[in-house]
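testing teh design pipeline on a random one, pls ignore if ur not involved
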């Protein structure tokens, strides 16, 4: 099983949670390092940018996922596409217990920000008010 830290639309109660077939692990977590967190483009997609030390610690949830579920998440996050997310390992800490663990996170490398249409910088947490702005890729291409 893999531990995946989700900070945006894959969180429980958020727009893409239906694609998250993992098992929730504990309560909320926060990244040990600070990272920029943005809403990007006309879809208002949440981007965690792997530029350690910038931004703020990012709040999210950790899920235990199988190899199959991880592969499905990879497809959703388009990890094999040039403009897709990349998988990184980061340290996160449980907000209630303080327990630390390493988890996979889907993020963007800093060089992708240079050409990004940043709409909003978030203060370390993707909230439901941000999710209301989100537009799925499928909604944009449907007729």
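output:
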């Amino acid at each position: 099983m893999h531990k995946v830290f989700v900070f945006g639309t894959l969180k429980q109660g958020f727009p893409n949670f239906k694609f998250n077939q993992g098992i929730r692990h504990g309560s909320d977590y926060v990244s040990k390092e600070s990272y920029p967190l943005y809403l990007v483009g006309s879809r208002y997609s949440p981007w965690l940018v792997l530029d350690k030390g910038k931004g703020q610690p990012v709040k999210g949830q950790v899920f235990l996922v199988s190899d199959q579920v991880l592969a499905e998440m990879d497809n959703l996050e388009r990890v094999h596409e040039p403009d897709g997310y990349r998988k990184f390992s980061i340290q996160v800490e449980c907000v209630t217990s303080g327990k630390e663990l390493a988890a996979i996170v889907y993020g963007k490398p800093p060089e992708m920000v240079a050409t990004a249409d940043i709409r909003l910088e978030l203060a370390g947490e993707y909230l439901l008010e941000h999710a209301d702005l989100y537009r799925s890729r499928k909604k944009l291409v449907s007729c």
